[in-house]
Write a structure and sequence with these properties.
Elements (H helix, E strand, L loop, with lengths): L3 E7 L5 E6 L2 H10 L14 E8 L2 H12 L3 H8 L3 H8 L15
Antiparallel strand pairs: 1-2, 1-3
Length: 106
Amino acid sequence: MKFYYVYILLCSDGLTYTGITNNIERRLAEHQDGLNKSCFTFKRKPLKLVFHQEFNNVIQAIYFEKKIKKWSAKKKLALANGNYDLLQILAECRNASHSNYNPKNQ
């Protein structure tokens, strides 16, 4: 059975990188070696793997990666740290155009 991994890297500048691979060791080495100068992580080393999740279905892995790529760094790090209470708080919309927005509750 083939496995796929969605992963989050924490870069030296505090930014995060989210990716997908079928070989996590190889992919992490590629990031660390920095052979591709146009790669997001090239100038942001050292990198730290802070999260990875294994999937046996590539469609599910792609869906999850696309979902969390849109998240803020704070939300990604809450997931990585297993801080599910904070993850829930960060998931709540606080946008003034959202129907549940109430500035008195902020």
